Structure formats: structure tokens, C-alpha cells
Amino acid sequence: MRLTALRKVYPGTGATPEVVALDGIDLAVERGRIHGIVGRSGAGKSTLIRCLTVLERPTSGAVVIDGEELSALPEGRLREARRRIGMVFQHVNLLDSRTVAQNVAYPLEVAGVPRAQRAARVQELLDLVGLGNRAGAYPAQLSGGQRQRVGIARALATEPAVLLCDEPTSALDSATTRQILGLIRDLRDRLGITVLIITHEMAVVREICDSVTLLDHGRVAEQGAVADVVAAYGSRLARELIPVPDLPLGEERQLVEVAYSTDDVATADVLAAVAALGTGVEVAAGTIETLAGRRVGRLQLDVPAADVAAALDRLHAVGLHAVVSSDGGAGTGSAVRATGAGVAR
């Protein structure tokens, strides 16, 4: 799947200026990978979905799915090409008057698949998502997680090349979220399908994604493999993927944030460097996580304001990334691009 210089502009009317919802989005996701799209409200995530499925035509740029440029197709061919994209929705949008099997069969009916062939495909899909014994149930008889499994089975009915998931777990509890994300990962492994997850939940990216893009006001702010992104210590994505709390300390003390990877330095050496700063410095908060095979730690140090400059110098001297938290370390690191050619530190 590839997006090239994707741009969407909504024209202004009268005194209302035009709105640039997407401004030159470049994105390439290899077959069989899981990519997350994150960003705050208004970042352009919803517009990206509509343009990716060509429910809205991009103002310019290209949307290429399974080797074909959808954005250049006439409407007749586009309807067929959209079957290469399976959609999983936040609220599932099942038809209440239809059984589970009938809901899964619906896209096959639209595609004109013969009845006997539909029935076999539906049973195969329900078995795949763990609902083989619920074919005759109605949506009202299912839990939230079961309804989402039906939605995933329906999205896979036409054997798409890309599974597009729009906030697939935001309406679910934490235990069910882990189950659904595990199912999506298993389906990727079994089917080799490409998965694009639109989410505002960084926990989803942490749990399942191979790579991630941060959108900000319609532009790509940061992008890269998760393993590279978490090692770009000063970046917004790194801080949100491996968060530690900001604690109010007053004017006489400040927080110094230290970030490191055990690929570069052992945790014991980091703690030794912190201890060498003296008894006036304390660890206020910290976390160590393993994401995409990389073990990364972040510490918040409680430092007397008069000693901050010296503490930063000593931490930098031993090769550690360290910033004053109130200085907004987020955004000080360079964006990591999908090529993975290097890591900004």
C-alpha cells in the first residue's frame, strides 16, 4: 500500500477560507505489516480514511492498493477495486435484523457470489475469528468483543489486500482490546494481509504495530518503524509510546528526563550515573519497556534547580539523552522516516 503526495483541500465559500485537510502525505506500508496512524482530533485521520478508500477524491496525489492506483479509476471500476480494502469500524455497524452469518455474507451478496459459495466462505471466516458456533445468533445476543469479531470476519469476506481498522478497540474494555488486537495479529500472520490501524490510543501502537505515523494538522510530523521511533528519544512519538508522568515540583526543584536503550547502555550503568549526581538528586518516576524488540527506559529525575546544568552536563558526558522536562523535550528530536536509515537522538 502506498500514498504519494496525498493532498485534500476543501474549497472556501464566501468569507470562509479553504481548509487544507491533508497536505502532502507520503506513506508506504509493506505487504504483511501492521502500521498505526495516530494524531489528535483534527489531525486529518478521518479525511485520510475517506481519501484512502476514495470515498472522497484526493485533490492531488496517488492512492495505490495492491499495485493499482485507486485515485485514478473511474467510478465503475472503483467500486470493484474498493473490495481490496476491508473496513473494520469502531462501532462495528452490524445489521441488527440479520444473523451473524448473514452479516458476514452481505459483502459477498453485493459482489454477486453464488449462495453455496457464500455459505462456505462465511463458515470459514467465522471459524477463523473464533465464532464458528454463533452463525445463527443476532448482534444483540453478542458481547462487544464478539460483535467486533463479526465485523472483522465481514471485512475479510472479499479477501482484501488491506485491512483498514478505524478505532477498532476504543469501545472495548482492556481485556477485550487485547483479545481483538491478538486476533488481528494472528490474522495478519495467517493471511499475510496488510493492516492499517487508525487510532488515538498509543497502547494499540505499543501492542501491535510494526511502524507508525504521527499526523499533525494534515501533515506527517513523525514516521518510522516502532523500534526506530522509540529510540528517537526526544521525539513526540517516543515520549508518548514510553511515557512517564510530569510531576509538579515548584521553583526550587526541576524534573530532568533521561532516556536510553539497553542496546546502547545497561540499566545498571544508567542508575550508577544517576547515583553519581549526588544525594540531592532522586528518581521521581521511571519505566522500562520492550517495544518491537528494543528495550527502552525513561526516568524523571527530581533535581535541585541550582544543580540542573551540572547534572545535564554529567549525564551528557556519559552518553545519555537528558533534557529538562519543562523545556518540552517532545519535538526536539528529528522525525524518523520509514526508510529506517537512521535514528535521531
Description:
The chain is α/β, with parallel strands linked by helices. The chain has two domains: 2-229, 3-Layer(aba) Sandwich (Rossmann fold), CATH 3.40.50.300; 244-327, Alpha-Beta Plaits. 31% of the residues lie in helices and 27% in strands. It has eleven helices and 14 strands. The chain has helices at 45-52, 75-81, 100-110, 115-128, 144-155, 174-191, 202-208, 226-229, 236-241, 267-275, 308-317; strands spanning 2-10, 19-28, 34-38, 60-65, 68-69, 85-88, 162-166, 194-198, 211-216, 219-225, 253-261, 282-291, 294-304, 321-324. The strands form three sheets. It has a six-stranded mixed beta sheet. A four-stranded antiparallel beta sheet has the order 2-1-4-5, with helices on one face. Strands 12-13-11-14 form a four-stranded antiparallel beta sheet, covered by helices on one side. Helix 3 runs parallel beside helix 5 and helix 5 runs parallel beside helix 6 (174-191). The radius of gyration is 24 Å and the shape is elongated. The protein starts with a strand and ends in a 21-residue tail after the last strand.
